[in-house]
Amino acid sequence: MAKYVGALDQGTTSTRFMIFDHSGNVIAVDQKEHEQIYPKPGWVEHDAMEIWTRSKEVISGALAKAGIQAADLAAVGVTNQRETAVIWDKTTGRPVHNAIVWQDTRTDTICNNLAKDGGQDRFREKVGLPLATYFSGPKIRWVLDNVPGVRERAERGEVVFGNIDSWCIWNLTGGVDGGIHMTDVTNASRTMLMNLKTLDWDDEILGIMGVPRAMLPKIRPSSAVYGHCREPLPGIPVAGDLGDQQAAIFGQTCYSVGEAKNTYGTGNFLLLNTGTSPIQSKSGLLTTLGYQIGDQPAVYCLEGSIAITGALVQWLRDNLGMISNSVEIEQLAASVEDNGGVYFVPAFSGLFAPYWRSDARGVIAGLTRYVTKAHIARAVLEATAWQSKEVVDAMNADSGVTLTSLKVDGGMVHNELLMQFQADVLGVPVIRPKVAETTSLGAAYAAGLAVGFWTQLDELRANWGVDRTWDPHMDAAIRDREYKLWKKAVTRTFDWVE
Which pTM does this prediction carry? Predict the structure, then answer.
């Protein structure tokens, strides 16, 4: 009997393959970065062929590190950067254009034109999302409008669309030789094209957006056997598919209404389980699918999406050269007592939740001759915590449930200075689990459930354990004063792009 489950975790900056045992312990991991392509200001692209090459390499690498064969895996799950759109030729297996990344802002004009009739919330009641450059639907439209011949071929079903989950699963299951063209409810809910209630593509929106139904993948549950892998995992069931943030809430075992998690990755994403009925946000949050297990009712979430958090540390490293690796930022930031009056609002791709301002651009406010690079490093970390607080405030307002603690995961949760500051500004405990990479774990759980490796959610809950808790220590008056200054800095980013 197979002893492990694998998860292919295709993220914004890297791809990893992780292998877990029945207790949710990490057996092996292999990870590789891929190129970030910036053709113009505000444009962000990936080479989808490079992503598939990296995927094959990390699968083979993790199996080798674990000293096991593909046959030792009961199933494999896929999780992915959401909203990143790739359109490819079914016959050649080649993309017709680079993948357009979720951070990309080129669809600003398309979104503004669509908003002329009905405003930014034109489709919100059906899809739970505002009109914004973030989502896949307008990216599909851009490719159809700008790459010659693609629209006609899309209408004939010769070229097809997917978020990165669809691209990886199609390739895993054979690609041009019978690859399965599908997505799950969580990824479909990030396109702006799926109706939240029917869990199917919405013909009215497809017509308005100008996207042919023939190019879209079939929508499936998040946990089900979709098909079987060819190379590099011959015969292994592909049985789980979740967008990365939904995979994280699943891996954090937030299966009860009112449970929430915050993932600290390239961006930050705070999700709250709201149960089997969608709740429309009045505070700038997204209504999204949380997960669907087999033929059970789908579970919905409210989500606060923040575009730039970990990516800001990467920018400090790669663009400014202030640090040589990401780990150094904690030591640099800890060398000063406070931010020296500096606030850094990283609106590099506009502002996401709760503002949804594509006209915003990044601002460093409060600079004086006193300020050093250590103060800027501290302001960089604090920006992540303040943006998360804004989302928590919106979530409390929408749900009517006051957050009492926050489960956290992702790469930045090993930064203890940041985690303490996050607890301080929220005024609630911040809890890091033993397995911080819960995105991969969630995809593995979904796949394992589908094949009977795990049989019920209580088994998964039993695997979850606390690694570290940070309790708040900041005086409320100081927190309120600092938050007011942060909010003031945010307003300085508005209306930059005309």
Answer: 0.87
